[in-house]
Amino acid sequence: MSTADISFLLQLEQVIAARKVEGSEASYTAKLFRAGLPRIAQKVGEEGVELALASVTDTREKVVSEAADLLYHMLVLLNSRESGLAEVIAELERRHK
Predict the structure, then answer these.
(1) What does pTM read for this prediction?
(2) Which pLDDT tens digits describe the chain residue by residue (97 residues)?
(3) For the chain, which has fewer Cβ within 10 Å, the N-terminal or C-terminal residue?
(4) Full residue range of the structural domain in which residue 61 is found
(5) Where does 1-97 have alpha helices with state H?
């Protein structure tokens, strides 16, 4: 994965943070934040299960779609815990050493 690919995830983190602050009624992200951490955690769990199931029963495209859903919801969860992708990457780097 190139840095350009990762830059989109960093941009998505900014969009998620902005939607949290804006709180628009039309925003799915804002709706998740209003529902609270238990609902966000539930969505991460659901998406993880959907990805696992898709990996053994569905097409490559479906697996990629479910992985995208999981990654998005994970970013929302991290934001709700005042964390972010940079901390996750740092932890992975630490484990790699």
Answers:
(1) 0.92
(2) 566 678 899 999 999 999 999 989 999 999 999 999 999 999 999 999 999 999 999 999 999 999 999 999 999 999 999 999 999 999 999 999 9
(3) C
(4) 3-96
(5) 3-22, 28-35, 37-57, 60-80, 85-96
**What is the distance between the alpha carbons of residues 36 and 64, in angstroms, rounded to a whole number?**
27
Listing DSSP states for 45-66 in one string gives HHHHHHHHHHHHHS-HHHHHHH
- Give the CATH number of the domain where residue 45 resides: 1.10.287.1080
| Alpha carbon distance, N-terminus to C-terminus of the chain | 20
CA distance 96 to 4: 22
Give yes or no for a contact between 64 and 50, defined as CB atoms under 8 angstroms apart: no
Cβ atoms within 10 Å, residue 46: 13
